[in-house]
Design goal:
With 187 residues, chain A is mainly beta. Helix content of chain A is 6%, strand content 43%. Chain A has a six-stranded antiparallel beta sheet, with no helix packed on it. In chain A, strands 11-10-13 form a three-stranded antiparallel beta sheet, with no helix packed on it. The model of chain A has no long low-confidence stretch (mean pLDDT 97). At the A-B interface, strand 1, strand 2, strand 9, strand 11 and strand 12 of A face strand 1, strand 2, strand 9, strand 11 and strand 12 of B.
């Protein structure tokens, strides 16, 4: 940041597939093995290759986790697949600082953003290229891939939001997104 | 948000040009007439059509301005043009709650994100399709279009950030982005 200098940002985004590149980018992968207990059909789950990728998350965290006023930016890729009749999905979480919001937007593929409030009302929004989703505070959220190709979603959220995975890991969502007659429904 | 309902988000984003559609979308336009005083060459400015569009901003503000923890999402289109040798640019602002950050990302065209800290150090980051920019707190920011086509930029910022245009309107930035020998430089 030298006075009058013209430079490049340290992170680039491939606008087609939201692949993020650059030194600050953090990469996380989630295999089926990391998602034990989130799917209903345990028997089907146990028969599957536990090393199979379920989803990946890339993020740029320019400030320390917990910093007030800052923002994080990320991209998630959820792979296609089902456990029984339930679509591959992310773990899902409330935010630790639970009034914190998040934006998601669909980049590639088709899926659902599953949302649940503190009263356990649950609903979903269709995710597709160009769908833009506001996830208000106090709303747990998870993504499911309902298609045969990768579901890619961009995200921006406050750096002091945090992730409360525990509530969902223990109590789950109050309904499941399953395929019935070839279509996703919440049951 | 009926329990178990599957719905669409009220806002869509055209991923190619970031045109935002849907009832909640707010549209703002800025003509040259709205930008009096921000360019150095007043004489050149006065000879130009004051009704000429300089930039447009679309935004989705899902919560009230000032709400803690919420987020806003927007897209800016800066039209190509110069006033003298100075590129068309946005007014520029600090955030009112001045520790609040913002993400910008280039979608179409070429330009510069001009940044200035409270000590009036000024620098710029190249904006192009896929460039991703973190604007930390206490950093004034403005976009300039250095190309012959529209510059389109996506943005996400906290709903309690606010805009302090006054500081820039009164004191300006400490340097200008001008074209010299066909290239943009800060002087």
């Amino acid at each position: 940041m030298k006075h009058l200098e013209i430079m490049k940002s340290p992170v680039e985004l491939n606008l087609k597939n939201y692949l993020m590149t650059g030194d600050p980018v953090v990469n996380q992968i989630r295999k089926l093995n990391d998602l034990k207990g989130i799917f209903q059909d345990q028997e089907a789950f146990n028969l599957m290759d536990q090393e199979q990728l379920a989803y990946t998350v890339q993020s740029w965290l320019p400030v320390a986790d917990g910093t007030p006023g800052g923002l994080f930016f990320g991209a998630s890729t959820i792979y296609p697949g089902k456990v029984g009749n339930e679509y591959f999905m992310t773990k899902g979480h409330f935010h630790s600082q639970s009034d914190r919001a998040e934006f998601y937007w669909g980049v590639q593929g088709k899926g659902m953003l599953i949302l649940m409030d503190r009263d356990k009302n649950i609903w979903a929004e269709e995710v597709y290229p160009g769908s833009l989703h506001y996830i208000g505070g106090e709303i747990a959220h998870r993504l499911a891939n309902t298609s045969d190709e990768n579901l890619i979603v961009g995200a921006c959220w406050p750096s002091d939001a945090g992730h409360d995975y525990e509530e969902i890991a223990v109590n789950g969502f109050s309904a499941r997104l399953v395929e019935v007659d070839g279509k996703p429904i919440l049951v």
